[in-house]
Amino acid sequence: MIDDAHAFSETERAGVYRAIFERRDVRAQFRPDPIPPELLARLLEAAHHAPSVGFMQPWDFLVIDSRDIRERVHQGFLRENARAAEHYCGEQGARYRRLKLEGILDSPMNLCITCDRERGGEHVLGRNSMLDTDLFSTCLAVQNLWLAARAEGIGVGWVSIVDPAELGEILGLPPSVYPLAYLCMGYVSDFLDRPELSRAGWRQRLPLSERVHGNGWQAPPAEEALTLAIDELTRHP
Amino acid sequence: MIDDAHAFSETERAGVYRAIFERRDVRAQFRPDPIPPELLARLLEAAHHAPSVGFMQPWDFLVIDSRDIRERVHQGFLRENARAAEHYCGEQGARYRRLKLEGILDSPMNLCITCDRERGGEHVLGRNSMLDTDLFSTCLAVQNLWLAARAEGIGVGWVSIVDPAELGEILGLPPSVYPLAYLCMGYVSDFLDRPELSRAGWRQRLPLSERVHGNGWQAPPAEEALTLAIDELTRHP
Prior knowledge:
2 copies of one chain form a homodimer. Chain A is an alpha+beta fold. Chain A has helices spanning 10-22, 37-48, 67-85, 90-98, 133-151, 164-171, 196-199, 224-235, and strands spanning 59-64, 109-116, 154-159, 177-187, 212-213.
């Protein structure tokens, strides 16, 4: 091993990987107990420490516990989901309709993480060639929160089957603010051992080795040792 | 504290928060030592365990160590950066030009994380109302890798000042594959104590309390206890 003065201790490192591997997109296992405010504050602080293009920090956090607001969002979900279900027919359609895809009302709170596309003025450092890097930054905040939540024993589920324009109206967002992630959050009865869609037979994890390339799309990794290390790691997960 | 049977141990939890708070966007501190293949495999596996819309897993990983490829990407960076610099004049322009914004050639390897916008076919579960959720999923993979890298003592820097179309050509990407994140990776001499743009006086961290809302953009958090907890947490970071 090369000098690793900056590496974490074994247990700290294990904590990071455990959060990554045991994090789930929770839909069906929420318990109604409220999240303590000190804990929620830690999660928001974790999200707020995500990297952002030009240190833009384009995110905002809407902590939603109103039953009325959640019911309106849920109505929107039902409509969008009915529209989505039309794309699947026969057996696949029946399977789609059996999937539970959100916990908007079951979870004790929802969190909307938004992206203000105008924060930081007209020219944001690093956001010139790729304009969507503000949205990308906001996603990094989502993942910080998701992993910290797992470490705290809190489940998070991302509901993407909502119309962002409608969500913006319900939440009174200014025109420049995009509701990027609508999350359901709460304690859970259980974190599933693998992703729900995998358990339901909808889609399986792809072999990592097939997703790793070298110095170009058509090239294998230049170092054969990397290919071998990936095989070794994924054979004994 | 409410039942937290699923929460991590104190040290594992500390590891997760440490990765979140001590992660940096590294540009200037890279050392040339190569990353061991077993370690890189762990980072790719961490990225591959990100959540994705409809379990789409739209990402691919290009492990780039060729000097020639990196020099071409670097040339593209120089051109895009000169274009970006034109937006800043006077003192701000001088400050912009002094910033080191990438470590493409200083780091021992670059990693391009891409998003295949057609993976999973025409209809991907959950990607109906918000089409960019495939890009968002890929960002979550980036953040998994970034945090695992920090735990392993590896620095990562995201170069967003590149033209994605040019990058796609250099790397031979198929038309449906978008080069979302071009990352520089390697051991570092040092992880800075705060973000480089903050140290350089370019932009500072926003107060978290001002970014947290309640049941709508105009509403404060419904629970005053949350506001107090955020004040407490950010007063003693």
